[in-house]
Amino acid sequence: MIPKxxxxxxxLVTRERxxxxxxxxxxxxEGLTAHGRGEAxxxxxxEKTTESARLAERTAAAMLxxxxxxxxxxxxxxxxxxxxxxxxxxxxxxxxxxxxxxxxTEERVQQIEDLLRSAxxxxxxGEAERLxxxxxxxxxxxxxxxxxxxxxxxxxxxxxxxxxxVRMGKTVIAIDLNPLSRTARRxxxxxxxxxxxxxxxxxxxxxxLTQKDKKxxxxxxxxxxxxxxxxxxxxxxLNHALD
Amino acid sequence: MIPKxxxxxxxLVTRERxxxxxxxxxxxxEGLTAHGRGEAxxxxxxEKTTESARLAERTAAAMLxxxxxxxxxxxxxxxxxxxxxxxxxxxxxxxxxxxxxxxxTEERVQQIEDLLRSAxxxxxxGEAERLxxxxxxxxxxxxxxxxxxxxxxxxxxxxxxxxxxVRMGKTVIAIDLNPLSRTARRxxxxxxxxxxxxxxxxxxxxxxLTQKDKKxxxxxxxxxxxxxxxxxxxxxxLNHALD
Lengths: 243, 243
What we know:
2 copies of one chain form a homodimer.
Chain A: H1 9-24, H2 29-45, H3 51-66, E1 70-74, H4 76-93, E2 96-99, H5 106-118, E3 128-130, E4 140-142, E5 151-155, H6 159-167, E6 171-175, H7 182-186, E7 189-191, H8 195-208, H9 211-219, H10 223-239
Parallel strand pairs in A: 1-2, 1-5, 5-6, 6-7
Antiparallel strand pairs in A: 3-4
Helix pairs in contact in A: 1-2, 3-8, 3-9, 3-10, 4-5, 4-8
């Protein structure tokens, strides 16, 4: 048991929740390490949604709701941390929800689909094929799902897969706390924010934005600016850390 | 299997090794997340030993070899990543090696002691008592070990325990990739470097330093400078990341 007096109580409890999902197979053990990397960058952000992240989240809402065939790609960490937020975003945006795993087994796919369904998501789970130009398990997806999508939201993605999707001509929206990652730099739009803060913001914007807002946000997207702003926030925090 | 073509191959393989140690109980699942946090900060350091880290490592060697009763405190992650480097540093410095765990069970202590012994370390393992002023399992240590030490090397420590040791009047040397952590800021001397790079550097310096070097290094210790230098390296990398 973690004592409540521990100064990192909240973060340690989230970690225990992830560890629980690792025990049941939803989260891969490597996924726990990836979560830790995210925590470090979130710490540098001050563990809050910055102004530039909010702009990115509104732009994501504009893109998802204007898409012909939007898809939300879900992996183990995303399902463990934010199954309900994914279900809510699906309702707000009309996007398909599809499970895609780096460490893929049929059993894990099934467990994660069950978790998403019990949180209220309508999961697309036709037969998977190796359709993406990648040399590991992430090549798998569904022909009528992600393969046909025009806009894909990839929370907590790996760089390879993000690159492959962009090369296939898709609009890729990443949620990634590391503004220097290949995912962050290759995505069409990068949201540098923590998952459970980012998803409700996108859902809210899906409801709120007018057609004019959407047009404006999509046309004025400047991902380099969004990444520089995230980096500026982080360096500022680092620079004042010892004050 | 991770394909060799993956750009983060080395980091992913280390993570798999840690996951293997999580399976066997050496590394706690929460330890995997802590490792991820370290990875993020190491990435900002450029995954190399900086000049200021090298100075910190030489100072650590001076302190350990000048101590009356030096102790190296080892947890699960440290044993999993660097059992041999710990054994080598023990030989070079003459320090006691004692296992101390955040998520403590007798079985885990035993497993970690066995791993250290098989790597060649002489592990001090008398009966543990709750001797440190802390409200969780980290309060446990040995009266003739850490409790009596004047200088303690704590790789990958948590902030509470570092603070408690400093309050007990001990000289605490931390190895911590996060220069903003409470551990890093409370320790007498902080080495902002990756464990398997830092330990061999300290061992080398234990062999190389003259008495005069040791006196000079100990007297000129300025931990605020060492931390600012680490932060400067990180902000520099962040600032040039999008060039």
